[in-house]
């Protein structure tokens, strides 16, 4: 016997219409590429999303056709999210930090029909437009009078002119909730990038999960700043979860330096923010240099790579801001776990609470976790046993776009994340490494994340990356590559001494090498493959 409740499909269009009706005056504020602040409401955004939908119909786009975007976080990008997916097409966010050839490759692989871009990405578009064989329409996200006359791009139109004549009304179509809504390619550290194709159902369920109190805790009382780009796994789903809850949205545009982010947090009364650790490094340095404070910020979600404990402590002790350490991946829409204390932990002394808060947190309902040994046997949740992390759930990938790479799932629909983790008795996950970055010395694993986190707590260290180098006796040994903080004098020995009593002696790196820069990928993660390549001829010191 089936239940007798309405079989209403979970569709992305319902999120913006809900926000427009129930949170019509809640604000969406965007720092524009031009530098000024644009301000309007969910009701205004819904009108313009409907116009985008009408304009796509007029171009003759079919159901499930892909529309690419190369854009910063801003109101026009937000309207595209809803106009494209709501009308049954697929919004394909492309990372503009990739090299132009990769952007063209991805647009061709996705078979994008339309490509919408911020004018700051005009140089990329000029370099690739003739190579994008499927794109028929190029739309610059600007006013008609800002459209460059001499771009050389055939048929280039301004976004404002494109949607100007469309109706404010639009009958959002109703269709199967499993239909594709958004497409995002993985950062692809090896081989070609692969597409994760989210459905309406997975996106709406993920928004519910992300908004929960023990996840990001979004509500109509929050003002949220997604610094994480809308081209990085849909800004972790915040554009959907914010509309679902009526939270004020503050979009930072292209200005992600410490000063711009701090100014925006203060001027817009931001209560929570979200981004990768590298962004917060810039903000914290700026604040320390200028003796600044936060007047409204309560929490910040940090994920995408391991958040150094020193950063969590600095936010909390110096600024009274709670870091919500989160873990996920493109293949998971992206949210897997968020670190929020449980009731009994709120009574623990500060030091013991910190030992919990540095972990990547607990699973959001909708994400099942397992850790297994190399033979696939389950490992105990004792906070000690580290194993390959497997996940499953309704917003986790089943297969990559166009079936690239074959079936990624293990028996029982478990997706292997490629991460190595422990889980403790309270269910808190701690990522110890990527399986391919793990360092195996004398048959024992060394967590490169642990080694890096300790170094990051040293006052003279701006950034640290731990990689393995071959060793005749131990197979592999860790070395540490460090960028010093400007104006700080710190020696190799200072850093090695800093490990004393923090990890076992055999886990301490064999050498510390100072560099001016460490290669970062398009989403701000350290590129260990490049770093290992850079140090491939390195010889360990004798002894
Ligand atoms: P991406 O799909 O580009 O978002 O990358 C996902 C990968 O980033 C994960 O599989 C992890 O290896 C890493 N990652 C994400 N969040 C964290 C975190 N909080 N701590 C450690 N690694 C993380």
Structure notes:
Helix content is 29%, strand content 24%. The chain is built from 16 helices and 25 strands. Strands 2-1-11-10-12-13-14-15-16 form a nine-stranded mixed sheet, with helices on both faces. The protein has a seven-stranded mixed sheet with strand order 7-6-5-3-4-8-9, with helices on both faces. A four-stranded antiparallel sheet has the order 17-18-19-20. The longest helix has 18 residues, at 42-59. The model has no long low-confidence stretch (mean pLDDT 95). The structure holds adenosine monophosphate (AMP). Residues 186-187, 233, 303-307, 325-327, 329-330, 334, 360, 417-419, 431, 434, 523 line the site of adenosine monophosphate (AMP).
Fold blueprint:
Blueprint: H1 12-22, E1 27-31, E2 37-41, H2 42-59, E3 66-70, H3 75-86, E4 90-93, H4 100-110, E5 112-117, H5 122-128, E6 137-140, E7 157-158, H6 159-164, E8 180-185, E9 195-199, H7 200-211, E10 223-226, H8 233-236, H9 238-245, E11 248-251, H10 258-267, E12 272-275, H11 277-290, E13 299-302, H12 309-319, E14 322-328, E15 335-338, H13 350-357, E16 362-363, E17 368-372, E18 387-392, E19 415-423, E20 429-434, E21 439-441, E22 444-446, H14 448-456, E23 461-471, E24 475-484, H15 492-498, E25 511-514, H16 528-534
Parallel strand pairs: 1-11, 3-4, 3-5, 4-8, 5-6, 6-7, 10-11, 10-12, 12-13, 13-14, 24-25
Antiparallel strand pairs: 1-2, 8-9, 14-15, 15-16, 17-18, 18-19, 19-20, 21-22, 23-24
The structure holds adenosine monophosphate.
